[in-house]
Amino acid sequence: MKRTLAVFAAALLCAAGAQAESAVTVSMTNYAFTPGTLNLKAGETYRIHFSNDSNKSHDFTAREFFQSSTIAPGDKAKLEDGEEVELEGGQAIDITLTPNCAGIYAASCTLFMHSMLGMTGMVVVH
Predict the structure, then answer these.
(1) Which residue of 28, 45, 107, 125 could cross-link 121, Cys pair, CB 3.0 to 4.6 Å?
(2) SS3 sequence, 26-81?
(3) Residues 53 and 78: beta-carbon distance below 8 Å
(4) Which residues contact 101 (CB under 8 A, 6 or more apart)?
């Protein structure tokens, strides 16, 4: 009985570790991402909370970053063309993903003139 409980407890700990994820928030405002740079670790799972805190539509487009990451199956449909998070004013969405490759990835809002007005950022994966 003790051995069975020990095996069960070890299995629970392994399952809990496998599901652990870090939470990160990206706020979209007129015309910026906060934070401007996301620092993530390759192989670590993140729940990124994208929040459009303005009254205008914005997107977070980072094609290479999203393509080089493993997106949770239930969240793939939340990405437009597999490369951007698009939100109306006041909307929010969570995307769970695991970055696979170290690198520096550009991010921007692709709506007309938004990046020219400063709505750009980076995702740095270590």
Answers:
(1) 107
(2) EEEECCEEECCEEEECCCCCEEEEEEECCCCCEEEECHHHHHCEEECHHHHHHCEC
(3) no
(4) 42, 68, 125
SS3 (DSSP) at 117: coil
pTM of structure: 0.83
Which pLDDT score, from 0 to 100, does residue 9 have? 42
Distances (CA, A) of 74 to 17, 94, 110: 20, 11, 25
Cα–Cα nearest to 58, from 105, 116, 112, 124:
112
Return phi, psi of residue 31, to 5°.
Answer: -130, 80
* 7 contacts: CB under 8 Å, gap ≥ 6: none
Indicate the burial class of 33 (C-beta count within 10 angstroms; 0-12, 13-18, 19 or more): buried
Tens digit of each residue's pLDDT (9 = 90 or more) over 90-114 = 999 999 999 999 999 999 999 999 9
